[in-house]
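Reviewers asked in the last cycle whether our approach scales beyond single polypeptides. To address this, we selected a multi-component target totalling 842 residues and predicted its structure end to end. The input consisted of the following lines:
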Amino acid sequence: MTEQLLELHAISKTYPGVTALSGVSLTVHRGEVLGLIGENGAGKSTLMKILGGVVAPSDGTIVIDGVEHASLTVKSSTAAGIAFVHQELNLFENLDVASNVLIGREPRFGGFMNLIDQAALRKRVKPLLDRLGVDFGVNALVEDLSIAQRQMVEIAKALSYDARVIIMDEPTSSLTLTETERLLKVIGELRQSGVSVIYISHRLSEVMACADRVVVLRDGQRVGQLDRGAITHDAMIRLMIGRELKSLYIPPKAAPREGGLVVDDLVTTAFSNTKVSFAIHRGEIVGLAGLVGCGRTEVAQAIFGVDPALGGRVTIDGKPVKLGDVHSAIASGIYLAPEDRKRSGLVLDLPIVENVTLASLPRYARLTLVDGAQEHKVAEEQSRKLKIKAPNVDTVALTLSGGNQQKIVLGKWMSMQPNVVIFDEPTRGIDVGAKSEIYALMRELADSGVAILMISSDMEEVLGVSDRMIVMHEGHVSGLLDRNQFSEHNVLTLAVGGTIQQEAIEHA
Amino acid sequence: MLRKELGLFLLILIIGAITAVLNPQFISQINLSNLANQIGLFGLFAIGVGVVIITGGIELSVGSMLALLGIIFLDLLINHELAWPIALLITVGGGVILGTIHGLLVTQLRLQPFVVTLCGLLIYRGLARYYTADSTAGFGYGSGYETLEWLVSGRVGVVPNAFIFFVIVCLIMSVVLHKSVFGRYLFAVGKNEEAARFSGIPTRLVITAAYSIAGLLTGMSAIFFVFYTQSVSPSAHGNFYELYAVAAAVLGGCSLRGGEGSILGIFLGTVLLQVLQNLVNMLGIPSSLNYTVMGAVIMLGVIADRELQRRRMHKIMLDSAAARAAGKPASAAG
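The resulting structure, written as structure tokens, was:
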């Protein structure tokens, strides 16, 4: 337990304009499970990428077996016995388990013909599977395995590299309860056999169940450590929060009005056995918080109709909206500024003008022919209103910055008659100046009577911009917060949900 | 935007000029008139295939469709003695139906366009051969369709009607593609189907319509070809023609990734292909090298285009970097 395997010393990582990590130190001992927690964007992933050799730190050293390194490569990281079990599994579905475990390192025979020695391959993989006690064989095709079983294949792969440290990033996000228990048992067995595990999870109860020690990151800094006895829900949450939040709040000009969006028992394809209900009034900005993967985006896309809904009703001012049909959603004035704007929000190769009018083109057409002058007029008007920085509206969207691209997406919807606008991560990848412009635009829209739903993983944003907040956990609404109840503690408590959602809401 | 087309036009002029110098016969009235006829015949369905390519799909069955529809048309006209307008309508309608089926298979069953239309290529060829028991069908002593015959194989002065018709179709399709709502949707879907869907565009309908248009134009082509060849031997009629169409579209600037291309480009692509065919004859190059010449020119064209594209992207990146650098202080101040 005392033998130190790995030490990260004062690691920093800066990207232009952003500090992802500053002076984070971390040690991993032989045979321990280290929990690594923090909010979305606290720097966990960056830190792990540095360990995996994918990202080089800007500053700091990595000490492995007493040898100092300024940075690692994927190769040297693997050679040092560091292995990943990824959130998205990296397996070849078309190959069997044995081939996946030893991919790229297959035992060969036949000299120059370089044939794969299938018998030896299986003989080498079998003991690894036995060690994990799995319920499938070396010959099983990966495409026939469940997510939990695939994870075991990943772990077997890690063991095949003689891994001494296995990093698991949100390993249970797609597992059932029993599968999670199985995984935690396997982690216990790995610890017994001297393998260390770095366990990254938003699910604090799992961290409590398996970690020997917990390190907490916040805003790229290490803010604390909890030893075995001190690991409690509350202690973890207290460490995760508590930074200075800048006030971004622009109060509404008037109280929320009658009418708006009502979502009733909506069932999304991602969480087919939970129902989501909430209402947003015209004139208010409602934040939708929750941890990554809690089903926020799925709810938004079901309301907007790009994803089918398995059940439920959506109404605007009492009038029902046909589900699973983008066209009807748009016709009723429900608009979505999607999370992945480069993929879903914009046609990057088209000019600003064509992007702005894409959703309402028939309006600028006479006898189905597009009236270019009219179209330009509208695009120029939006461009001026939204202060889009571009030489002219014929500029291709690809060449603009993230903030300006987001403004094009907004221009597309604001040139129509919005009733409800859903913003999914409205300012991700956008610089500070453009961010506050977008917040001001959202408030302006709300003041003009639009109901606004804002999905955000950015705590500062969701606390600072919303009038009210809905918090989701694993596909269901775990709580509603009014502005006077807003606090990081309350949001996180609801977001990690589970059984503690009944906990008294602390007034901020 | 038009730079690509201009380049293609210049290339055609240069190749034409060189051929004319080496063999003045090339610019004789009779040769040019025949060349125009060929351009009309091969251009018509190339436009259809080009429209499908713009959606990011492919249409490989046009050659076989030409044979099958040609056979059906002859059968209706000669053996069943239907009035020509009815036979024509059924044939063209058959093309639309086949194209629509392809579109539905692609959009509703989410099959790959390559596979769907490859199956079409095999199925229609087989059906055409079965229909006539593999024997050649011709006009024989049929009559009563002289008007149609003049319309599709006649000439106005020295200009073949096929070419005139092709030009008219090009003009109409130019408006549809470059001016209409449908055309805008077509390019948006081809470039980014996801974003188009997120903008409420009926993407499946747009894609299906593209295949229907290809079917329509192929159906029309079938009539022209029947009168051009005067007979249809089902195992050879239209063989490889789908590749002429793909080649013309690619030469004309359509990207197989979708979202790019123009009617003018496809027009010029067809012209270049037919000029190359003609040049092989004119310059006494062994006709067995016909395809080789074509393939080599397309390859060079695509390489040149790639290079131009790369430079354009490079310039865009430089410009946007400059724009951002210039925009930064402004946003910080504001």
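The first strand of chain B starts at residue 137 and ends at 138. We regard this as preliminary and will revisit it once experimental data from Aim 1 are available.
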